[in-house]
Amino acid sequence: ADYVLAAMFFVNKRIAAYSSCAAENVRNGRWGAMAAAENRHRLRNETLLIVGLGVIGKAVAERANQLGVHVAAYDEYVSEAEMKALNVEKLSWEEGFRCADYVSINLKGCVENEDRIGK
User: Fold this and answer.
1) N or C, which end of the chain is more exposed by having fewer CB within 10 Å?
2) Contact present, 51 and 73 (Cβ < 8 Å)
3) Contact at 8 Å (CB) between 85 and 43?
């Protein structure tokens, strides 16, 4: 669950690009927000789709909710009422992937899930 949020920050804040030129920026007197090539938006109000709302999916939802991320999920075995109690919006497979800014896939590694998601 921690990794999912770390990955979201990594992508959202473009940390790879920022870190690749950090030493040069510091030599030139630029660090922190001044070194960012562009202003990035916050994760608040972004949409995270969780595919598979089991133990790990629920932990991801809890952490994302604390950051103000809009959390949606697809899980055919979890009711809408249970998701609502977790502050998670239940979406269909298609709608979830259509509206998500980020996707956390938390499906069991079993035969039924082998070909569920591809490129």
Assistant:
1) C
2) yes
3) no
DSSP secondary structure letter of residue 88: -
Quick one: which H or E segment has residue 70? Answer: strand 70-74
Model pLDDT for residues 57-93, shown as the tens digit of each residue? 999 999 999 999 999 999 999 999 999 999 999 999 9
The structure's pTM equals 0.81
The DSSP code sequence of 44-88 is TT-EEEEE--SHHHHHHHHHHHHTT-EEEEE-TTS-HHHHHHTT-
How far, rounded to the nearest angstrom, does the alpha carbon of residue 32 sit from its chain's CA centroid?
Answer: 23
d(C-alpha 116, C-alpha 43), whole Å: 27
How many residues in the chain? 119
* Residue 8 and residue 70 in contact, taking contact as beta carbons nearer than 8 Å: no
Contact of 16 with 69, CB cutoff 8 Å: no
CB atoms within 10 A of CB 50: 30
